[in-house]
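## retry 2 of 3
previous attempt timed out at serialization; input unchanged, resubmitting
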Amino acid sequence: MGMNQCGGCKLIFGSLGAFDKHRVGEYKGLIYEIGESGRPTGKVLGKRPSTRRCLTVEEIQAMGMTQNKQGWWVEGLSEAEKERFSRMRSKKVVTE
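## retry succeeded, writing output
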């Protein structure tokens, strides 16, 4: 598990997937005219502003992410993963 720190909000995420999920909105870009074929003609009609932003801590928590022991934001475990880890914890370890 690698660390991914956001340059915007400075939060640290335990995976690239978790990092990606905390960024929402559209990138800025050009708006093109659409021709009769349904494809862009190449004629620029304007510019679309960026609406990209970081989710707030409350929004991140609402997505089911939690902070691990290091304080990194991680995605919640699926039910199957929770069951698997529960079974692993319940197994007895024998040492000689």
